[in-house]
């Protein structure tokens, strides 16, 4: 029978640490207090307060559920080890190995959450992919990035809503806007913000030469009711409608329902073509515009500039945060945390957890 004692000891420490940084005991008390408040009929006379209390109750219940889940998994492992030792079962031993690996993965995701403490980290995110230097290869790379991030988001349990896609001239895309919804979506995706460099044998070069191309991911916080907080003068907007086309999603139609809004004072342009009607596209575009204007206001406050937005950089050589090399060797390397992964295909399929957690740990080390 294999000795699992060292793995169990490590998992026990990690589970106890998870309880500590989530404040398990405090969460139990807070849940009791929230349950009492929810049961008070007077709460429902104040819809705004009721909404806040319900949202917080769901968050607390989610955190408690995660801790109880990993604790139950650890208990199952310990019980399984005892049973396997008694029965000398190789089959059960293999199951335990799988349980240990799965619990380690669950704890890694939980530990990543402990590194998310920014003002907007718990909220949703507006993400934009833009092709950079590299011509057709860059446009193809932008489409690959869009696919990589939608898969990563789905694997993490986030909801992904693609709102606008502008197709490339020959292949790929010039840009795409998508919203990632779920708790900690912004905190997770902000770790990916920046220029990404791809090195490969170009599928668009008849001589099969190696090509370097770039694409950029932009990420800003998305808040559903932000339009009420951001003052947008309709007179300062130019609204254009056009025909939806391209890979905008399953609801894209061929009528003039797509909407492009230009905020004239700032020059910000947003588009939406994925909703069923022009009215819905306009409403979603206004939400995205409000998020961008709010982000611009935060940028203008000097004390939040580096924390939320960071400096603007060219979508080209010398500014990449990460390199994806497919030839002459295979490796993905983050140039901030120095984290590496040789499973390039897995990374491009959305396996980004290692890069996100490594960056967040690196970022925290820079301020300690």
Describe the structure.
This protein is an alpha+beta fold and 368 residues long. The protein folds into three domains: 5-113, Release factor (Methane Monooxygenase Hydroxylase, Chain G, domain 1); 124-221 and 313-367, Alpha-Beta Plaits; 227-300, Double Stranded RNA Binding Domain. Helix content is 48%, strand content 21%. The chain has ten helices and eleven strands. It has helices spanning 5-22, 24-38, 47-87, 90-113, 135-155, 185-189, 278-300, 302-309, 344-348, 353-367; strands at residues 124-131, 159-167, 173-181, 194-201, 210-222, 237-242, 258-263, 268-272, 320-325, 331-334, 340-341. The strands form two sheets. Strands 2-3-1-5-4-9-10-11 form an eight-stranded mixed beta sheet. Strands 6-7-8 form a three-stranded antiparallel beta sheet, with helices on one face. Strand 2 (159-167) and strand 3 form a beta hairpin. Helix 1 runs antiparallel to helix 3 (47-87), helix 3 runs antiparallel to helix 4 (90-113) and helix 4 packs across helix 10. The longest helix has 41 residues, at 47-87. The protein is globular and about 70 Å long.
